[in-house]
Amino acid sequence: WDVASLYCSFSSFCECDFRPDLPGLECDLAQHLAGQHLAKALVGKSLKAFIQNPAPSKPLVLSLHGWTGTGKSYVSSLLAQYLFRGGLRSPHVHHFSPIIHFPHPSHTEQYKKELKSWVQGNLTACGRSLFLFDEVDKLPPGLMEVLQPFLGPSWVVYGTNYRKAIFIFISNTGGEQINQVALEAWRSHRDREEISLQELEPAVSRAVLDNPHYGFWRSGNMEEHLIDAVVPFLPLQRHHVRHCILNELAQLGLEPQEEVVQAVLDSITYFPEGEQLFSSNGCKTVASRVTFFL
Ligand SMILES: Nc1ncnc2c1ncn2[C@@H]1O[C@H](COP(=O)(O)OP(=O)(O)OP(=O)(O)O)[C@@H](O)[C@H]1O
Q1: Which residues, 6 or more positions from 7, have their beta carbon under 8 angstroms from its beta carbon?
Q2: Coil, strand or helix at 207
Q3: Which one-letter DSSP state was computed for residue 237?
Q4: How many helices (H) and strands (E) does the chain have?
Q5: What share of the chain is helix, strand, coil (3-state, %, to 5)?
Q6: Which residue's alpha carbon is at the smallest distance from atom 15 of ligand 1?
Q7: Fewer beta carbons below 10 Å: N end or C end of the chain?
Q8: Whole-structure pTM value
Q9: Number of domains in the chain
Q10: Nearest in space to 79 (alpha carbons), one of 55, 103, 46
Q11: In whole angstroms, what separates CA 140 from the centre of its chain?
Q12: Is 84 helix (H, G, I), strand (E, B) or coil?
């Protein structure tokens, strides 16, 4: 324990290195996040309500769903960047990945103890902590049970005020269902921006509950309404991938180069077989393809 965390544990005002810059986040999302009108709106709205409330009644719990490469990790890292001074490297941002942190299903009981004490210890050190769980559908079943007491509205758990924490869960579960809704909207000539959360949420929730490998399936978080927002990420079309390529070129300090843009777009595979509408891996491989074609 350093002096700062000791101070934090006695001071309800302590915000550690939590320095939220919501206008900055909104601006970055508006400029760089392609094709995700629902994610943009939902993340912005839930964060604003949560951060502006000096005494939230429960932690903020977001569940991000969608096809690979559609921006779930990207949005999470922007969140960390605009909420904490140290961004993803802040000592109060905790990132869990099944392959790295929970690789052996036979060690689940040990992982449960460790996860519970890790979350508890870090919330004691700083109530304003961000816990990021990647590939939730690949976590050992039952592991997430230990998180349940931290996600709800109780006043205090194990002597710690945890209501200012943020939990983000990421998975591909529900991705196929989201893709189907987006495809049907396109086939019936509906504007993509008309796709509403009400259309997607039931399908995503069903996919989560039906998936026996999904951590929440056993822990009951879905049923108990501990999740504040189910955030669907739509599959990306060719013009969205173009946006990602231009982002990448700008990041490299380069002007848009049409031959590179076309070469990258043409090297990507699209689905379904007939319409060739959505990028098979979203923008996941854009960075490496840009480097290749430069
Ligand atoms: N909607 C998007 N707008 C802009 N860039 C994007 C978008 N989606 C993905 N990217 C780019 O592609 C990279 C990979 O995407 P990201 O890691 O966020 O995918 P993901 O949805 O988390 O995929 P997975 O489910 O496979 O983990 C990002 O770092 C970002 O540069």
Answers
A1: 14
A2: helix
A3: B
A4: 13, 7
A5: 50, 10, 35
A6: 69
A7: N
A8: 0.92
A9: 2
A10: 46
A11: 19
A12: strand
Flag whether the ipTM exceeds 0.95: yes
Torsion of CA 168, 171, 176, 180, to 10 degrees: 10
Residues 6+ apart with CB under 8 A from 100: none
Calculate the CA dihedral of residues 123, 105, 212, 184 and round it to 10 degrees.
Answer: 80
Name residue 181's amino acid.
V
Model confidence pLDDT, tens digit, residues 54-92: 888 899 999 999 999 999 999 999 999 999 999 999 999
- CA of 248 from ligand 1 middle (Å) equals 12
Looking at the structure, do residues 285 and 210 belong to the same domain, yes or no? Answer: no
Band (154; pLDDT cuts 50, 70, 90) = low
275 shares a domain with 155: no
Structure tokens at 22: 């919501």
**Domain endpoint, select from 233, 261, 282:** 233
98 phi and psi, to 5 degrees? -55, -40
Which pairing describes strands 93-96 and 270-271: parallel, antiparallel, or unpaired? Answer: unpaired
Angle ∠(146,212,162) on CA atoms, nearest 5: 20
The atom number, within ligand 1, closest to the CA of 281 reads 26
Mutate to test the pocket of ligand 1, among 28, 43, 74, 76 (most ligand atoms within 8 A of CB): 74
